[in-house]
Amino acid sequence: MRRPLSLDPRRTALILVDLQEEQRHDVHYVVEGFETVLANAQKILQAARKRRLLVVHAAYRRDFGVVPPRPLEHVSADGRPAFSDKDSPLTGAA
Q1: 84 partner at 20 to 30 Å CA-CA among 8, 19, 45, 66?
Q2: Statement: residue 94 has pLDDT above 60
């Protein structure tokens, strides 16, 4: 049985994490059903904006110049981060 959900907009935020192009295009990190994930996220985002809720977008980005590779972290053949490289257009960050 569904029941209405009531949220206080003064104490509610929508946080969207890691909706990056890597999950659509990078063969190592493709997420099955990612188009559905994005469509659902868009619906929730539109509803949050309509209600003027705080919206936060977060994406993980790696910069080996700031934090060197960790043990067992994937590194590409050229020594760059294998996932969420700060310079990759697939991270979706500007």
Answers
A1: 45
A2: no
Burial of residue 24 (CB within 10 Å: 0-12, 13-18, 19+) is middle
Report which of 19, 1, 30, 3 is spatially closest to residue 92, judged by C-alpha positions. Answer: 19
Give the DSSP H/E element, type plus range, for residue 36. helix 34-50
Q: What is the pLDDT of residue 24?
A: 73
In contact, 19 and 37? CB cutoff 8 Å? yes
Q: Indicate the SS3 state at residue 37.
A: helix
CA distance 17 to 20: 9
pTM for the full model? Answer: 0.68
